[in-house]
Automatic annotation (TrEMBL):
This is Leishmanolysin-like peptidase. The active site is at 186. Coiled coil: none annotated. One of its GO terms (cellular component) is membrane. Zn(2+) binds at residues 185, 189, 259.
Length: 309
């Protein structure tokens, strides 16, 4: 009996709560369409900054700070990026792009993030806002909002966190780990793991956009077909016939397409609904980031000696 109840609870958690991505705005997509990729900037370690835009209570703020600083360090240690400018400035257009998702306070307008300062370098800003709604089954959601004009890399992203599922006063260690996994998951969306961007993925060496980076099969399942992801699938499943990797087809617009298929990738961090534990970031996700053209893994580039090019 007890076991049945437990299974029931797990089932509810898995099917009702989801960390999700948001669709990109029309303007962001247009910007991407007119992008002419410049691959001449050197690779350097990613630097991220978090801004908490509404004013959560101290306990909530401490909780958010701790999960995002850990998640931030993870990406800063692993990913190299290219950047084109020496500062990021919040413009009117960027403010308006955030509207309807996260409302940036007006004092953010014209705020500039210096990318060259020694101490507080920042190559990507995540605006974090909270809500508290237990009738909304979204744990958290994230979207890239503004893209770097010469690489298409997201430089401003928004994260909306539903505190209804993260009460810091009752958080266990296991619960903390699950929340941290959600933070990493949302940041991956903010870094560009969003189906809208797949068609713009390009070769980081020469900037050539991949043709047919994804396709849709007879059952409307999106298959990602970029080279590293396909190679990884062929290796992992020991099957050289694989030509595309299925993305999630359920869960609505914030979930479908922007996550690995749960039935195939069970506990991979970038599957689309909440899990209780044992998340894994696999090479599938890391290869997808590399296939975007905008990131390389630090260890890899060190091992082939390109860091100082
Ligand atoms: C590409 O980027 C490099 C360095 O960031 C810059 O010097 C160069 O002018 C850019 N080329 C074009 C065509 O914009
Ligand atoms: C809470 O979420 C539900 C479901 O998404 C939505 O209908 C409702 O308007 C939300 N409540 C508030 C106060 O935003
Ligand atoms: C890309 O897809 C189109 C239409 O499905 C097809 O005609 C073309 O051969 C494909 N190109 C490559 C390089 O696979």
């Amino acid at each position: 009996m007890l076991e049945k109840q437990l299974l029931f609870i797990l089932f509810i958690l898995q099917t009702t709560c989801s960390p999700s991505a948001r669709k990109l705005s029309e303007r962001t997509l247009r910007k991407l369409d007119s992008l002419s990729v410049n691959t001449s900037a050197p690779w350097e370690p990613l630097r991220v900054t978090f801004e908490y835009v509404n004013d959560p209570n101290t306990q909530t703020r401490t909780f958010l700070d701790s999960i995002f600083s850990i998640a931030g360090v993870y990406f800063q240690k692993h990913l190299l990026i290219r950047r084109s400018s020496s500062s990021l400035t919040v413009t009117e257009t960027i403010m308006s792009e955030f509207q309807g998702f996260i409302d940036l306070p007006s004092d953010m307008l014209s705020k500039t993030y210096d990318t060259d300062l020694v101490l507080i370098k920042c190559y990507q800003v995540f605006y974090v806002s909270t809500m508290n709604n237990d009738s909304d089954n979204t744990l958290a959601s994230c979207a890239p909002i503004d893209l770097d004009s010469s690489t298409g890399r997201p430089v401003f992203a928004g994260i909306l966190w539903n505190m209804a599922y993260s009460d810091p006063t009752t958080l266990t260690n296991v619960g903390f780990e699950a929340q941290l996994a959600t933070a990493v998951h949302e940041m991956l969306h903010g870094l560009g793991f969003v189906s809208d961007l797949f068609s713009k993925f390009y070769d980081s060496v020469d900037g050539t956009v991949y043709t047919n980076s994804s396709s849709t099969d007879a059952n409307s399942v999106i298959l990602l077909q970029t080279p590293r992801v396909v190679a990884q699938a062929q290796k992992h499943f020991a099957c050289s016939d694989i030509t595309g990797v299925p993305m999630e087809n359920e869960g609505g617009s914030g979930t479908a397409g922007s996550h690995w298929e749960r039935a195939l990738f069970y506990n991979e961090m970038m599957t689309g609904s909440d899990m209780v534990s044992s998340f894994a970031i696999t090479d599938f996700t890391l290869q997808l980031l590399q296939d975007s053209g905008q990131y390389i893994q630090q260890l890899q580039i060190l091992s082939i000696g390109l860091l100082h090019s």
